[in-house]
């Protein structure tokens, strides 16, 4: 059988790797030589800082078209008003380049063997420095562990996109013949095992405490948290591969796919890594026993708005500094995603985040009956909430007359008594944000029963007063459904917006200059609890009582008082609620092989508040509808081949391509 191979060298153009960040070819720190950088402890720390910057973290500046670390000055144009949440059923974003939500396709590729080569070179030079006596044992061990952690992070990013990839763990000399450095793709299982082995090296060498000089450096616990995540992903792929089997040479060579019998070993690795963190009493859920729902909501929101290592829940985060004064080293989350009523540049294409009704419906209320069932938003008095209207803007008077709507006094009323993580994560119709009442009205029903939806309109109510279809005659007086499908559509298209991450209690400055400075929490204890619970529920290994306790501790922090049983469905529902918008949903659909069934000509849903002028005084009614943009695309479909991405440059590197490409 022909071996698939890859050519690894410094030159990115040889490899078709895309943008090459040749830090080692630059003269950084005011033209200090690269020989010096690799000959002194201070220089090595400079190179290590660059390697951290190369870690492919899917954070606030991650963008599918331009990749990772998209700051001015490093080849990117910023995050561009995009989020991985829009590649799932969490959000719809109509962005500056058009319709950005395309599940399974708009995900940044990653084939950065240039950076992997730099890690390998760093490790070689680290050994040389130690041999010369230039590094003490503790410094050597820490940087050795950090390099293996960074390399594990890089290979994890490769593995969950491509399956088996070439494993290059030694610096290669620049060849005279390309054949000298061709490396075959490893099997998918061998690739996952390599990532785990790299993390084990990191765990064995990293310190337990964060270094005082650089809090964002990895520790033993950070490596354990990544191992928990990696092992759960590998276990899920093994267990659920047959839900979306593929065929072809890559499958035959086991370059993609694993056996179900491989799953339990990975689940056990997840359980063991998670348990070590859970046993460390220096970590704890942030404010785990709130005195009220209001306190619970504030506590949860504070985790993200003011993320810091002083929070015992935080295991690893990425910090930013104000980009207006520091070469664009902040991010633009507030710029892109503040609701329309609060945008700082009303003419710019921001405020287009729309949280889906699909996601909102997953949240519970506080019935707390020990079941843990989701509580969909109630809109009608009969027939349940299974109805969904297509093309809401085309509804007729007769159609509207057929709905037995529940009437509400305010836009916020349908959401009362919902899990507070909803109000802390999502701007709802009628939410208050920065002292502004967020108006999400998308239409009205005139007193004669005629609907006016998704278009400007004015009508007189039975009370003789004048009303507007968007609740305001000012384009800055509402935050949803305006100018749908046009270049002026700087509004939510779903009736919901983003709250999680936004600076609510803080003043925001320099929005257009990468002025947002909220830290991105890459790993936190709640995820570890959920990883542990899922691995135990799926495999029957580990401590089921502890897993159930961990699951319910997260709910208690959200002011729930009941205890729900440990089941896979309960864990997955809790992941959707607790980790919403943190880039987990996309990868959960990938690893569990649920994407192709979840997205099969699928339209995500919106909730349209309508002012009903048939009543005096007018009341609000709510219409469940297919999202305008998903309708315009005739639905969204994830094809099974997308579980693995296309291998780049196979005509040069001679690799076996992934199935169906």
Please estimate the helix content: 25-40%
Helix-and-strand structural type = alpha+beta
| Alpha carbon gyration radius | 26 Å
The neighbouring-strand order within the major sheet is: 11-10-16-17
Quote the distance from N terminus to C terminus.
Answer: 20 Å
Share of residues in strands: 5-15%
Largest sheet, if any?
4 strands, mixed
Q: Categorize the overall geometry.
A: globular
**Whole-number mean pLDDT:** 89
Total helical segments: 22
Low-confidence stretches: 1-32, 72-78
Count of DSSP strands: 17
What does this structure look like?
This protein is of the alpha+beta class and 661 residues long. Among the domains are: 1-56 and 110-186 and 642-661, Serine Threonine Protein Phosphatase 5, Tetratricopeptide repeat, CATH 1.25.40; 333-518 and 601-632, no CATH class. Helices cover 34% and strands 9% of the residues. It contains 22 helices and 17 strands. The chain has a four-stranded mixed beta sheet with strand order 11-10-16-17. A three-stranded antiparallel beta sheet has the order 3-2-6. The protein has a two-stranded antiparallel ribbon with strand order 1-4. Helix 8 (220-240) runs antiparallel to helix 10, helix 8 (220-240) packs across helix 19 and helix 16 packs antiparallel against helix 17. It is globular. The model is unreliable at 1-32 and 72-78 (pLDDT under 50).
């Amino acid at each position: 059988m022909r071996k698939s191979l890859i050519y690894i060298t410094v030159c990115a153009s040889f490899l078709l790797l895309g943008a090459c960040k040749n830090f080692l070819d630059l003269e950084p720190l005011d033209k200090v030589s690269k020989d010096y950088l690799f000959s002194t402890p201070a220089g090595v720390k400079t190179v290590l800082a660059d390697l951290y910057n190369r870690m492919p973290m899917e954070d606030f500046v991650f963008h599918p078209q331009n990749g990772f670390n998209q700051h001015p000055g490093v080849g990117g144009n910023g995050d561009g008003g995009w989020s991985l949440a829009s590649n799932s059923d969490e959000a719809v974003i109509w962005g500056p380049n058009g319709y950005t939500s395309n599940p399974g396709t708009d995900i940044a590729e990653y084939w950065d063997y240039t950076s992997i080569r730099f890690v390998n070179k760093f490790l070689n030079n680290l050994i040389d420095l130690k041999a010369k006596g230039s590094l003490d044992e503790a410094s050597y061990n820490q940087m050795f562990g950090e390099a293996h952690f960074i390399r594990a992070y890089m290979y994890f990013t490769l593995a969950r996109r491509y399956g088996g990839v070439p494993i290059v763990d030694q610096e290669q000399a620049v060849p005279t013949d390309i054949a000298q450095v061709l490396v075959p793709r490893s099997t998918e299982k061998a690739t996952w095992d390599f990532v785990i082995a790299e993390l084990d090296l990191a765990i064995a060498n990293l310190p337990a405490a964060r270094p005082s000089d650089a809090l964002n450096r990895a520790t033993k616990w950070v490596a354990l948290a990544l191992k928990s995540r990696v092992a759960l992903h590998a276990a899920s792929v093994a267990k659920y591969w047959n839900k979306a089997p593929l065929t072809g040479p890559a499958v035959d060579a086991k370059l993609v796919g694993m056996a179900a019998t491989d799953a339990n070993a990975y689940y056990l690795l997840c359980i063991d890594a998670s348990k070590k963190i859970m046993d460390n009493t220096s970590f704890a859920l942030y404010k785990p026993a709130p005195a009220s729902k209001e306190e619970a909501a504030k506590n949860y929101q504070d985790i993200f708005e003011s993320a810091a290592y002083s929070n015992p829940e935080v295991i690893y985060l990425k910090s930013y500094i104000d980009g207006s004064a520091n070469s664009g080293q902040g991010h633009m989350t507030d710029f892109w995603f503040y609701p329309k009523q609060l945008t700082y540049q009303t003419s710019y294409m921001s405020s287009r985040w729309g949280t889906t009704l699909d996601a909102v419906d997953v949240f519970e209320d506080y019935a707390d009956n020990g079941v843990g069932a989701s509580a969909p938003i109630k809109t009608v008095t009969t027939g349940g909430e299974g109805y969904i209207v297509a093309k809401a803007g085309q509804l007729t008077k007769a159609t509207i007359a057929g709905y037995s709507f529940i009437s509400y006094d305010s836009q916020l009323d349908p959401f009362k008594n919902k899990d507070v993580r909803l109000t802390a994560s999502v701007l709802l119709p009628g939410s208050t944000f920065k002292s502004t009442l967020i108006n999400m009205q998308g239409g009205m029903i005139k007193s004669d029963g005629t609907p006016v939806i998704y278009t400007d309109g004015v009508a007189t109510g039975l009370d003789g007063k004048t009303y507007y279809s968007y609740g305001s005659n000012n384009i800055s007086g509402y935050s949803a459904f305006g100018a749908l499908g046009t270049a002026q559509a700087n509004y939510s298209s779903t009736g919901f917006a983003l709250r999680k991450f936004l600076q609510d209690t803080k003043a925001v400055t320099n929005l257009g200059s990468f002025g947002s400075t909220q830290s991105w929490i890459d790993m936190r204890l709640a995820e570890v609890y959920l990883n542990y619970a899922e691995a135990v529920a799926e495999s029957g290994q580990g401590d089921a009582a502890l897993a159930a306790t961990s699951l319910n501790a997260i709910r208690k922090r959200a002011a729930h008082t009941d205890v729900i049983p440990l089941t896979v469905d309960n864990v997955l529902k809790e992941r959707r609620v607790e980790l919403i918008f943190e880039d987990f949903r996309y990868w959960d659909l990938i690893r569990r092989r649920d994407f192709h069934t979840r997205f099969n000509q699928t339209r995500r849903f919106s909730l349209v508040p309508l002012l009903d002028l048939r009543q005096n005084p007018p009341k609000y009614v709510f219409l469940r509808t297919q999202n305008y943009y998903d309708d315009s695309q005739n639905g969204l479909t994830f094809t099974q081949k997308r579980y693995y991405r296309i291998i780049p440059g196979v005509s040069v590197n001679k690799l076996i391509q992934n199935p169906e490409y």
